[in-house]
Write a structure and sequence with these properties.
The chain is an all-alpha fold. It folds into three domains: about 90 residues, no CATH class; about 80 residues, Methane Monooxygenase Hydroxylase, Chain G, domain 1, CATH 1.20.58; about 90 residues, no CATH class. Helix content is about 70%, strand content about 0%. Helix 3 packs antiparallel against helix 4 and helix 11 packs antiparallel against helix 12. It starts with 6 loop residues before the first helix and ends in a 5-residue tail after the last helix. The mean pLDDT is about 90. It is a lipid-anchor.
Length: about 280
């Protein structure tokens, strides 16, 4: 966004607003906009963004700059501002379209990193709105990865890394939610499959300790004590101070068992990786 306007710019905006105020229909407003310069329409967009950020006026003004003055310097500035305005009013799909258009038209521009970042967070900001379909979360992860890999030195890379980690954690959380659902209903094999995904694919998230504990619970319920003991051994090696380890330890000792890597299940391989420092 630009800084303060010049006196001439403020006068131009006032005149532009006066012209539009006399228009009663959308058709008349569009015709009136065609009499204004690109800068004047752009300033209308800035003014609308400052005073009415939740309405569509700002993005419409910026779109008019692009329509009436295509491929101009003002059109380029207006397109990135249109993307920002659309995102601000939570028109996420439209924001992604505008961001992608900017990247297609101006891939080497200094604002390309910002366009990619806006595209990414337009997915990210929708994550909490979705149910069990995690398609948007995967798209957010890919778009955030693009920011991190394509623009590692940009001011947006650090924020993208933080959001990537949170989105990754969100995916693990959804697997845990489904796994707990199966576990409560006694569908132990289905629960194990979900917790295994967390342990193997989301091991750097905050959910891994609980996933290992839930594996202990599920395997004990099935009478698979070797797997339960190995899961607890991994839990003890990596999260000994976790209350989940205390719970797993009590479950095992209550049956005369102890946490120890035994047998030759997939968990034994994870345990070997843990000892070699290849896990987590």
């Amino acid at each position: 966004m630009t800084g303060g306007r010049t006196a001439a710019g403020r006068i131009g905006m006032v005149l532009a607003l006066a012209i539009l105020a006399g228009c009663s229909t959308q058709k008349e407003r569009q015709a009136a906009l065609e009499t204004l310069s690109a800068e004047e329409i752009y300033q209308l967009g800035e003014n609308a963004l400052e005073t009415r950020p939740r309405r569509e006026d700002a993005s419409n003004y910026f779109a008019e700059v692009e329509r009436l003055y295509p491929y101009s310097a003002w059109a380029k500035r207006a397109l990135i501002m249109q993307t920002y305005a659309l995102h601000k009013r939570k028109a996420y799909e439209e924001a992604r379209g505008a961001a992608q258009r900017f990247l297609d038209l101006y891939p080497g521009d200094e604002d390309a990193a910002y366009a990619q970042y806006l595209l990414a967070i337009s997915y990210y900001d929708q994550i909490e709105d979705v149910g069990r379909d995690q398609g948007l979360t995967f798209q957010a992860l890919q778009a955030l990865r693009d920011v991190i890999e394509r623009y590692p030195d940009s001011e947006y890379a650090r924020s993208a890394i933080l959001k990537f980690d949170l989105a990754f954690d969100h995916l693990a959380g959804k697997e845990m939610e489904i796994g707990r659902y199966y576990l409560r209903r006694g569908h132990y094999t289905s629960a194990i499959n979900r917790f295994r995904i967390v342990v193997q694919e989301f091991q750097s998230t905050t959910h891994t300790a609980e996933a290992l504990h839930r594996l202990v619970e599920a395997y004990l319920a099935l009478g698979l004590t070797e797997e339960a003991r190995t899961a607890a051994a991994i839990l003890g090696h990596n999260y000994r101070s976790s209350p989940f380890y205390d719970d797993s330890h009590r479950l095992l000792t209550g049956r005369g068992l102890s946490p120890e890597a035994v047998g030759d299940s997939w968990l034994r391989q994870v345990y070997r990786q843990t000892l070699r420092g290849e896990w987590l």
